[in-house]
Design brief:
This protein folds into 3 domains: 281 residues, Thrombin, subunit H; 106 residues, Pdz3 Domain (Roll); 90 residues, Pdz3 Domain, CATH 2.30.42. By secondary structure, it is α+β, with helices and mostly antiparallel strands. The protein is globular, with a radius of gyration of 24 Å. A hairpin with a 4-residue loop joins strand 6 and strand 7. The strands form 5 sheets. A 6-stranded antiparallel barrel has the order 8-9-10-13-12-11. Strands 2-3-4-7-6-5 form a 6-stranded antiparallel β-barrel.
Length: 525
């Protein structure tokens, strides 16, 4: 197993995890394991909150809420009701894309290359398996992003053994969620997403999925804790469970006893890659918002404030004259931390326009208490661009409220959306992120430089073949300047469609250069 990142997520998810994991003790980082692939991821809730009673009469509902069972329950009735909506997901991946992940993505031994009598080696496709669950009778499926990330093809196996090809409707690497769709000749059984906020530690839950390729497996346990931050992303708020979860369970549902889904199994803490009774699930309430956005637009839209924040420790509390119980007064709970300290305000951002300043301590957003920067990130991300938010803060020891018009969060990665074979998008193989003041300083760029930073380059992609490297700054496409990831993506797509080649103007090590990306060049994988 690779020790560099034992959160067994595929490439897109681990990029987010690496920097955040670095703050954790080495021993803990070496124990974290996720991705759970065997054999080798804010809007309305109409779709996923639909009650079986209001669905198509011909659509069999996989779950009907029942009263809680006894203290030591028999789960057989529950399993019988929800199992038809749980699916196995098989993806075909190019071997070279997974080789550096080791057992993280291939717990079964990798196939050995067969002798070829001196003939040139060709890239091999291997299979990886994960889990998912159906949330609507028309074939909408939820799984993890890392289950389908970089997949060449995706196949879904229903509980009755039927196999259906799946289309990736959209992915969200920041929360490790993805939405698929399959077409069936009749309405499919489905389950509903419940209220994860109502879940309590000690509550019985069952996990279902495809561990190590063993489809339809069921394990039971209790909720161990809520609100876990495991260093996997800016919106960490995991449900911790002791129900055994293993590789291949990724994307599978976590059920309460009434048959509703309150989480998506996604990670485990383990020294070996196997279950030791510490598993993590993405809360259903977060899943609802992500799925609703993906279903509507193919990607997730999040609110943007434009501040860099840090926790407020005891020393900073005294130095900033932050009164004791300040976050309680702002709507927080007794004993909570003291908010999120604004370390930097992005120029021209919503925060800058509203007058927020470094040294402000944000204690609430629309009366929702902010205990730390993670709370702030979640609260702001949940807001829609264009809405006005009341930011409660402390400045120079005095409480203050500012009204901020929330903007759309800049893309930190080119969204992955499968448009179908009839409308295929040219694949460049770049992940871009905004050029922040900190990155300008690290990359030794002029203070007013604009552009998009290359966060990652996909192996075997046209961008890699052209020599693009992480850390390059894209400042123009052709002769047109770009001021951020969104402008860069639009210009790149337009150039690719028009010429099937893209000329990027980049800065690298303080020097400017043009780099041509030829989309006709074969993928060397």
């Amino acid at each position: 197993m690779s020790t560099r990142d034992e959160f067994h997520h595929a490439t897109g998810a681990t990029r987010t995890a690496k920097g955040l994991m670095s703050r954790r003790p080495p021993r803990l980082r070496s124990l974290i394991a996720a991705g759970l692939l065997a054999s080798t991821a804010l809007g309305g809730y109409a779709l996923i909150e639909q009650s079986p009673a209001h669905a198509n009469d011909s659509a069999p509902a996989a779950s009907t809420p029942h009263a809680n069972a006894a203290v030591l329950p028999d789960f057989s009735d529950l399993v019988g009701r929800v199992k038809p909506a749980v699916v196995s997901i098989t993806t075909r991946l190019q071997a070279s894309e997974t080789a550096d992940e080791g057992p993280a993505r291939t717990p079964f031994p990798m196939p050995f290359a067969m002798p070829n009598d001196g003939a040139p080696a060709h890239p091999r496709l291997i299979e990886a398996r994960g889990s998912g669950f159906i949330i609507s009778p028309d074939g909408m499926i939820v799984t993890n992003n890392h289950v389908v990330h970089e997949a060449k093809s995706v196949m879904v196996t229903l509980s009755d053994g039927r196999e259906l090809p799946a289309k990736v409707v959209g992915r969200d690497p920041r929360t490790d969620l993805a939405v698929l769709r399959v077409a069936a000749d009749h309405p499919l059984p489905y389950v509903t997403l419940g209220d994860s906020n109502a879940v309590k530690p000690g509550q019985w839950v069952i996990a279902m999925g495809n561990p190590f390729g063993l489809g339809g497996s069921v394990t039971a346990g209790i909720v161990s804790a809520k609100g876990r931050d495991i260093g996997e992303g800016p919106y960490d708020n995991f449900i911790q469970v002791d129900a055994p979860i293993n590789q291949g369970n990724s994307g599978g549902p976590l059920f309460t006893q009434d048959g509703t889904v309150i989480g998506v199994n996604t990670a485990i803490l383990s020294p070996s890659g196997g279950s030791i009774g510490i598993g993590f699930a993405i809360p259903a309430n977060l899943v609802k918002t992500v799925v609703a956005d993906i279903e509507t637009t193919g990607h997730v839209t999040r609110g943007y404030l434009g501040v860099a924040a840090q926790p407020v420790g005891a020393a900073l509390q005294a130095a900033l004259d932050l009164p004791a119980g300040a976050s309680d007064a702002a709507g927080g709970s007794a004993g909570s931390d003291k908010g999120a300290l604004v370390a930097n305000v992005e120029p021209h951002s919503p925060a800058a326009k509203a007058g927020l300043k470094p040294g402000d301590v944000i204690t609430a957003v629309d009366s929702q208490a902010v205990a730390d920067p993670r709370d702030l990130a979640r609260e702001i991300a949940a807001l829609k661009p264009g809405v006005e938010a009341k930011i409660t803060l402390i400045r120079n020891g005095a409480p203050l409220t500012e009204t901020v018009t929330i903007a759309a969060q800049p893309d930190s990665e080119i969204a992955a959306r499968d448009e179908g074979a009839g409308a295929a998008q040219p694949k460049i193989g770049l992940a871009l992120q905004p050029l922040s003041p900190e990155l300008r300083e690290q990359l030794d760029l002029p203070g007013q430089s604009k552009g998009a930073v290359v966060a990652a380059v996909e192996p075997g992609s046209p961008a890699e073949a052209a020599g693009i490297e992480p850390g390059d700054v894209v400042v123009g496409v052709g002769t047109a300047a770009v001021d951020g990831p969104e402008a860069a993506v639009s210009a790149i797509r337009a150039a690719a469609h028009a010429h099937h080649a893209v000329a990027l103007r980049i800065f690298r090590h303080g020097e400017a250069a043009f780099v041509a990306i030829d989309l006709n060049k074969p993928n060397e994988g």
